[in-house]
Amino acid sequence: MKIGVFVCHCGTNISAVIDVQKVVNDLAKMPGVFAMDYKFMCSDPGQNMIISEIKQKKLDAVIVAACSPCLHELTFRNTLIRGGLNPYMLEIANIREQDSWVHTDRDKATEKAVRLAKMAVAKAKRNQPLFPQEVSVEKSCLVIGGGIAGIQAAIDISSAGYQTVIVEKEPSIGGKMAMFDKTFPTLDCSACILTPKMVQASQSKKVKIYTYSEVEEIGGYVGNFNARIRVKARSVNMEKCTGCGICWQKCPVKVNSEFEQNLGPRKAVYVPFAQAVPNVPVIDCVNCTYYRSKRQNPESKGLCRICEKFCPAGAIEFDQKDKIIEEKFGAVIVATGFSAFDHKVYGEYGAGRYKDVVTALQFERLLNSSGPTQGKILRPSDSKEARTIVFVQCVGSRDESKGVPYCSRVCCMYTAKQALLLKEHIPDANAYVFYIDIRAAGKNYEEFIERVQDEYGVLYLRGRVSKIYRTGDGALLVRGADTLSGTQVEISADMVVLATGLVSNPETVKLGQMIGIPYDKNRFFTESHPKLAPAETQTAGVFICGACQFPKDIPDSVAQAGAAASKVLGLFSQEHLMLEPVLACVNQKICNGCFHCRAVCPYNAIDEEILKDKSVVARVIESKCHGCGNCISACPVSAVDLKGYTNEQILEQLQSLR
Amino acid sequence: MEEKKEKNGFEPRLVGILCRWCSYQGADLAGTSRLKYEPNMTVLRVPCSARMSPLFLMKGLTSDIDGILFSGCHPGDCHYISGNMNARRRFVIFKKLLEFAGMEPERIQMSWCSASEDKKWADIVDSVTIEVKKTGPNNKFK
Ligand SMILES: Cc1cc2nc3c(=O)[nH]c(=O)nc-3n(C[C@H](O)[C@H](O)[C@H](O)COP(=O)(O)OP(=O)(O)OC[C@H]3O[C@@H](n4cnc5c(N)ncnc54)[C@H](O)[C@@H]3O)c2cc1C
Ligand code: FES
Predict the structure, then answer these.
(1) How far is the centre of ligand 1, averaged over its atoms, from the C-alpha of A169 (Å)?
(2) Lowest CB count within 10 Å: A441, A461, A558, A593, which one?
(3) Do A591 and A525 belong to one domain?
């Protein structure tokens, strides 16, 4: 067997620490090995060089000693195909991420590179050509989360002609954007640009929307996912309901509205906001008098039932049950958005004790003409108009001590927007903004901030607020530093708005584990490559977009949604997909039929097969196998093996370190 | 070689068998973040920590390797649902057996390291290296 080893300098990324020439020399001494180096192996000339060597030297297998296989394994597999070799005759020795970038001692790093390359040679000696399995593609996409990102992705996919299903856990789609009054930096009215999209999605024949629903389970693989969706009981028949609103006008139970950020009431039967899609209410079983009475006394007829009495369409159905839907999908887009940082951990800002210290989302609702105050800036404690407002930036952003080391990216901009809108509502109001740095790196963003300061006279003070407390007359005293003038400032304010940062959706971990996609230390979903694959994940067929990946504004969320959609369309444009041939296989001559393998297989991929001599042995169902290797380690007679990572290969690799 | 090993400057040969979804990527991230750690460990990539077989431990230890580390995703994070838990069960039992046979526990280790834990990866390699250095060369199978 003839093996070619190609060592990359990666510019100086590798060669600055590793003596590439020595690696080549050491490897070339191995029997049957040819070795050479080049500045950039992944470049066109680099790849062509590999191809011509494969042909000239009649190589059987190729080792590329370069960057991590996570980056260029696919690139070089294609190189092998172009050179006429089976792509699985490639092995990569990761001498950049796991060598030159993490070590400084030249001799030791070079020694390690040699070890890594020799180990790859040892494995390649036992490589077998492998052939991808062909599977069909279910041309329907599941979108989890119906915020602006999810809606946009669904619209893009459906307008290309493919079926899309949005699963949204709230009673309406729309996400956070539905709460805003206007959006920076153009000050478009948020509802005016969002509502048409919500309607477009709901009216499209190709989009199915399950609101008040959750994905409970996802199995399968790219092209063939199976999802179990729980559509929670709304207690309202969606076909019969006309959305007339009589039920929620008549309902006697008032509770705080989540959509209004607890600044206004909703009923026990409610739609979260006027433009909700679908415009069908849900009954909140926890607070509804009927359900409460039924819980206390299951035998009774139940109290209240006023909504049922008044509903002209007879749409109230108290005995509705959750519905479970099982559907197949070819691709999944996760667009579950963000949560607002809970500012209670900031004791110095009142830890949530002061009613007039509000969050940015609450202030959005106060600004909104369809909000709890009809757009009047009334302070929550006594409904008096607020004339002096202090905005505090970076509450739960860039604060290591509170577990949020990152910048939330949108707060500088939305604070400027809110201060501007305040001045538009009340021109002689006083607006102060405490900031650390202003980050306004979007198109027309810097200009927007300038306008807010120059035209609208919002006063920006550079420094942290150290304390907020209440004075006798009900005002809030804000004490902070103005580091530019070097003075302590104290401002008596009617209201304080905290620019609370964007943190991950609390369900991220659960979702990530269910779908099988990783999340980072701040619990945002991890993209497949930070620069080159921002909408993909490590799991084929699963994509991410919007603020569930990292805090971002609407334009970026929409752009990433389009990117995710285009990846899905790329997938759907194929009739068949080629799946990794890294699969388990059983040597039925050795198998003794103990089925330990079946007990540990997470995918039910082991079946029984009866041989001619009537003995029962194991068989791998290839379309179900994911190639984890559980079965192999469980087999007491070594009858199962994993193609691409066989026992023989790994033992050779270990032996090579001798 | 033998002589060199006996001296104070003993440089252990270590192998890390890493699952490709979490630990291998955590190790990659350590590189992207340009963290620095000991160069003694050579990494072998497998699909999942569940690929771990007692066979590999035996082979490693009889091939003069001074220490072996298995590393996978955190419990609950395994790309193949529960592979890491199966791996841990096998690992614990086999490690006990080897210890019973006189093998020093420092030589056979297992860890959880996620794709975002670059610093943790660097720390794991350093601590395994230091521990095996203290334990000395592996000559149990000589
Ligand atoms: C106060 C404030 C003001 C802002 N102002 C602006 C602005 O003026 N301009 C601008 O460009 N950006 C602004 N932003 C940023 C903007 O909110 C985000 O860019 C945008 O909301 C991101 O959209 P998304 O769809 O990714 O997430 P979201 O809007 O959070 O939507 C996610 C959706 O997924 C649903 N969901 C969550 N988990 C699940 C689950 N497990 N199953 C099913 N569904 C689920 C949620 O219910 C929600 O409907 C502002 C942010 C804040 C906090
Ligand atoms: S994939 Fe990492 S342990 Fe299973």
Answers:
(1) 13
(2) A441
(3) no
